[in-house]
C-alpha cells in the first residue's frame, strides 16, 4: 500500500494528509485496503501504524497510544542500537565487496572465464575470489551460488572452498551454493572429492550426487538428482525438492528487488517440490504459496508479504 508508506515518511506534508483523507473516504474498497495494510504492518512487528484510529477500536487505540508514550524515553537508546545493528548487518556485505574479484547484483547472472580457461557462471547476489598465483587454481565462493566448468589439467588440481567445505577436481562441472544454514555441492559431470573443515573423511561424488553440509554441526547429507535439474538457475529456473517455503523464498529473494516477508511460521514451514520461474519472481511467489491457500500482498514496490489471508 503506497499510501501507508507515504504517510510514514517524516517529511510528509499537510497536502499529503488532505489527499489521503480524500482517498480514504472515496470508497469502502479504499478503507478495506487501508485496514489490510495496517494489520499486515502490525503483524510484521512494526511500530504503531499511522492513523490507526481509522481501523482500530477507540479504546484499544488509546491503550496502545499510552504504551507508546511510555516507550518514547528510550528512543535515543533505540537509535543508538539501530546504528550498531546497521554496522553489524553491513559489515559482511562490505567485506565481500572488498574481497571479491567477481560479483553480481540482485537478479543478475554473469559468465566468467578464468585465466586457466575454466568457466564460472555466477547466480544472483553471488561473489567469488580467484587465486591463480604460483600455479594454484583456487576459487573461494564468498556468497550465493556458482556453477563451475573446470578445464582439465591433471598437473594443477582446481579447488573451490565455500564456508568450510572444500571441493577438489581435475576437470569437471559442478554447482556450489552457500546458504546461512548449509553449503550444497551438486555434481553434473566428472568426479570430485569433498572435505569438511575439522573432518578427516573425504567424500567422493559422482554425477547426480548432491551433498549438503550443515554449518551448525558439520553433518553431511546426500541425495540423488537428475544432472539436468542441477543448477537450473542458469536457465532462469529454480528446481526444489521437499524444502520449506521459507527456503524457497530465501532463494527467490536474490532475484527480487523488493523485500519479501513471511510473518506466518505455519506458511514458512510448509514443504514444497516444484519448478519456479526466476525471470518473474512475483509469479513464482504466487505459485509457491497458492497450493496452501496463501496470498502475495503487494504492499509497495519495495515490499511483498506472504500470508494465509
Question: Topology of this protein?
Answer:
Blueprint: H1 2-7, H2 14-24, H3 28-43, H4 58-71, H5 75-99, E1 102-103, E2 110-113, E3 119-122, E4 127-131, E5 138-143, E6 145-149, E7 158-162, E8 165-169, E9 173-178, E10 182-189, E11 192-196, E12 202-205, E13 209-214, E14 220-224, E15 237-244, H6 245-253, E16 259-261, H7 265-268, E17 271-277, H8 281-289, E18 295-300, E19 303-307
Parallel strand pairs: 5-7, 16-19
Antiparallel strand pairs: 1-4, 2-3, 3-6, 4-5, 6-9, 7-8, 8-11, 9-10, 10-13, 11-12, 13-14, 15-17, 18-19
Count of structural domains: 3
CATH C-level of the largest domain:
Mainly Beta
How many angstroms separate the termini?
A: 16 Å
Helical fraction: 25-40%
Total number of helices: 8
> What value does the Rg take, in angstroms?
24 Å
Shape: elongated
Mean pLDDT: 82
Q: What is the fold named in CATH at topology level of the largest domain?
A: Jelly Rolls
Please name the CATH architecture of the largest domain: Sandwich
Q: The biggest beta sheet, please?
A: 7 strands, mixed
Which regions are unreliable across 5 or more consecutive residues at pLDDT < 50?
Answer: 45-52, 60-64, 68-91
Q: Which oligomerization state do the chains in this entry correspond to?
A: single chain
Could you tell me the strand content as a percent range?
25-35%
Which structural class do you get from the secondary structure elements? Answer: alpha+beta
What is the H/E order?
Answer: HHHHHEEEEEEEEEEEEEEEHEHEHEE
Strands across the major sheet, in which order?
Answer: 1-4-5-7-8-11-12
Total strand segments: 19
Amino acid at each position: 500500500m503506497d499510501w501507508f508508506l507515504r504517510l510514514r515518511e517524516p517529511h510528509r506534508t499537510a497536502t499529503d494528509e488532505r489527499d489521503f483523507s480524500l482517498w480514504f473516504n472515496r470508497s469502502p474498497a479504499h478503507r478495506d485496503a487501508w485496514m489490510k495494510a495496517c494489520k499486515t504492518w502490525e503483524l510484521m512487528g512494526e511500530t504503531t501504524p499511522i492513523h490507526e484510529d481509522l481501523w482500530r477500536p477507540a479504546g484499544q487505540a488509546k491503550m496502545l497510544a499510552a504504551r507508546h508514550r511510555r516507550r518514547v524515553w528510550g528512543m535515543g537508546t533505540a537509535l543508538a542500537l539501530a546504528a550498531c545493528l546497521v554496522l553489524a548487518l553491513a559489515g559482511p556485505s562490505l567485506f565481500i565487496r572488498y574481497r571479491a574479484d567477481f560479483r553480481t547484483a540482485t537478479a543478475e547472472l554473469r559468465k566468467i572465464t578464468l585465466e586457466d580457461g575454466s568457466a564460472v557462471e555466477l547466480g544472483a547476489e553471488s561473489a567469488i575470489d580467484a587465486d591463480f598465483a604460483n600455479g594454484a587454481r583456487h576459487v573461494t565462493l564468498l556468497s550465493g551460488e556458482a556453477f563451475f566448468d573446470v578445464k582439465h589439467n591433471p598437473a594443477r588440481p582446481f579447488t573451490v572452498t565455500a564456508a568450510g567445505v572444500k571441493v577438489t577436481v581435475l576437470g569437471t562441472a559442478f554447482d556450489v551454493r552457500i546458504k546461512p544454514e548449509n553449503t550444497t555441492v551438486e555434481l553434473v559431470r566428472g568426479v570430485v572429492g569433498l572435505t569438511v573443515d575439522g573432518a578427516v573423511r573425504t567424500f567422493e561424488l559422482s554425477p547426480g550426487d548432491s551433498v549438503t553440509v550443515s554449518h551448525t554441526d558439520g553433518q553431511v547429507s546426500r541425495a540423488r538428482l537428475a544432472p539436468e535439474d542441477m543448477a537450473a538457475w542458469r536457465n532462469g529456473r529454480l528446481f526444489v525438492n521437499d524444502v520449506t517455503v521459507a527456503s524457497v523464498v530465501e532463494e527467490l529473494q536474490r532475484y527480487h528487488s523488493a523485500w519479501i516477508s513471511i510473518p506466518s511460521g505455519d506458511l514458512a514451514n510448509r514443504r514444497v517440490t516444484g519448478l519456479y520461474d526466476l525471470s518473474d519472481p512475483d509469479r513464482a511467489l504466487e505459485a509457491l504459496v497458492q497450493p496452501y491457500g496463501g496470498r502475495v500482498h503487494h504492499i509497495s514496490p519495495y515490499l511483498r508479504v506472504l500470508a494465509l489471508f
